[in-house]
Amino acid sequence: MPYRLLNVLCLGLLCILVASGPAWPGEPGRVLELGERPAYDLAPYLEVLDVAEGRLTIDQVSAEPWSRRFKPMGGPAFESPSRGLRVHWLRFTAFAPKGSVAAKTVWLVATDYVYLNKINFYRPTPDGWEVIKTGLNRPFSTRELVNRNFVFTLPQADHGPFTCYMRLETKGFNPLHFHAWSLPAFISHTTKENYLFAICYGVLLSMIAFNLFIAVSLRDRVYLYYVGYILFALVSMTFLHGQVTALWDFGTQTFVRVLWVNMGLFTAFAYLFMRGILNTRSLSPLLDKLLIFGFCYGLGITAAGLMDLSWISRWLTLGSGILSPLLALTAGMVSLRRGVAAARYFLLAWGVLAAAVVIFVIQELGPLQGEYWSRNSLLVGTALESILLSLALAARIRSLKEERKALAASETKFKNLSYTDGLTGLFNKRFFSLHLEQAMRGARGSDDRPCLLFIDLDDFKLFNDTHGHDQGDLVLKRLAEVIADSVRSNDMPCRWGGEEFAVILVDATLESAAVIAERIRQRFGQGVFCPNGQEVRQTLSAGVARAKQDESADDFIRRADQALYRAKRAGKNRLFISRAA
Fold first, then answer.
1. For the structural domain made of 25-186, what CATH number should be given?
2. CATH of domain 429-577
3. Catalytic-residue membership of 402
């Protein structure tokens, strides 16, 4: 029985040892075995030494007593909540089975975090420690590999187990992840990311250039708000994802300050654009005030960034991630219900961005940390939103064109009404006076002078008194129809007043004007009216005159009217032509 118990205890101890993984003398915790997988999360294998003493060297932390003070990191990422500058030491141990493919592969360690002030990477060599010193407070040229993140080469894995150390000197930061990559896998991963960045940044740049051109062409402030919004979004993305570090050595303080200034302006222009495209100033004063508050909120992020209060900017930005989508979607729905054409695309755009923002904020706060799509969700969402918002602007332009077209049609309609006689549909005396002056001015200095035809119904008062004004109106309408059908397309028939009509004949000779006048007289005289079943014929008299050189409009009208009067005196139902030179 004691032997059986001893066997059970030994078996249990063996299971515990197997479950805990291989351990190496002087290196407590788990050891990473590099195998066939292309990448490994280092979180389970990292150990942390958090010390206030910043002057410790690699020789000190790798020896007693400091080497025993390292503790397993715990959790999926390394975090440092301090707002002040802190120094942290991290280490991990790895190996690859001798003779395996992994042992002959080049391995890298990379972090997905770009805001580290200083990071020193120590790898063992036969002659001691080799150190790579880089970080935001150091030139970009200090990076071992050209990359937006910090990437370091691991020692050759076929020489047995090795322990690497990292010294981080930075302020409090977001969750920090480290991964071990095989070189082919890292190249493939980086290429995939670069394609994504190229597509998204290309979309943003295209939208900026295209809409800036339209903004300049149309002089529309809403397009300028859109350009500002997308421009600051683009700059903020290059800071968030680290590409800007390859262009300029900012230093951490300047880098973080410019980042939050851009994020604040990004937010402020977002609210300006919302106000403009949704026209909340007219549709909803309450919503408009909330959007003005959002604009000031964005300026608050910028102000905190300028004062180097990055922790305030960060939390205000995270708050904006909740506030902005709610306000945008609410404003969009209100505008859609009130008939704003651009609201459909606007809602779709902000729905996409809202989903991206929620994923990004969740990633920043803990869950989904380090995931490829969650880490890049804000960039992808911003690129898609820029396209949809550009479509919203196009819908807005179409809507404005339709409104202007309707307004122009309405103006034309009212203008025509102001120039049209209500009974006959011909132009009225106001139109006549305006266009006679224009016709005479246009003909000065040339022989293309206008002619003027005056027409008056014979004994029309007697007709009205005998048969009534309703029947008289029918006679007036019939005469208007005859005149309109008899004149040329560029002539201007008008009702002068009462039973008197006038026609401005453009580019006509006296002979051609007389032909038109005679045609009107004959056609009208052939008509028969039947008031109260009684057949009645009605006649007219007409006078024609041609404008003289440098003659005033009043004198021209007087001569045409005198010609009409002479036709009346000559017995009515006839035409008289004023042949004055």
1. 2.60.40.2380
2. 3.30.70.270
3. no
Q: What is the mean pLDDT of residues 140-165?
A: 90
Peptide bond just before 65 cis, omega within 30 deg: yes
How many residues belong to the chain? Answer: 581
Beta-ladder partners of 33: 95
pLDDT digit string (tens) for 510-532? 999 999 999 999 999 998 898 88
Say which of 403, 411, 499, 518 is annotated catalytic: 499
In 90-105, which positions are buried (b, 16+ CB within 10 angstroms) versus exposed (e)?
bbbbbbbeeeeebbeb
Q: Look at residue 3 and tell me whether its pLDDT is greater than 60.
A: no
CB 146, CB 246: distance < 8 Å: yes
How far apart CA 389 and CA 378 sit, in angstroms, is 16
443 closest CA partner among 556, 544, 543 = 556
Cα–Cα distance between 360 and 102 in angstroms, integer? 34
Phi, psi of 158 (to 5 degrees): -85, 5
- pTM for this entry: 0.65
Q: What are phi and psi of 542, to 5 degrees?
A: -140, 150
DSSP 398-464: HHHHHHHHHHHHHHHHHHHHHHB-TTT-SB-HHHHHHHHHHHHHHHTTSS---EEEEEEETTHHHHH
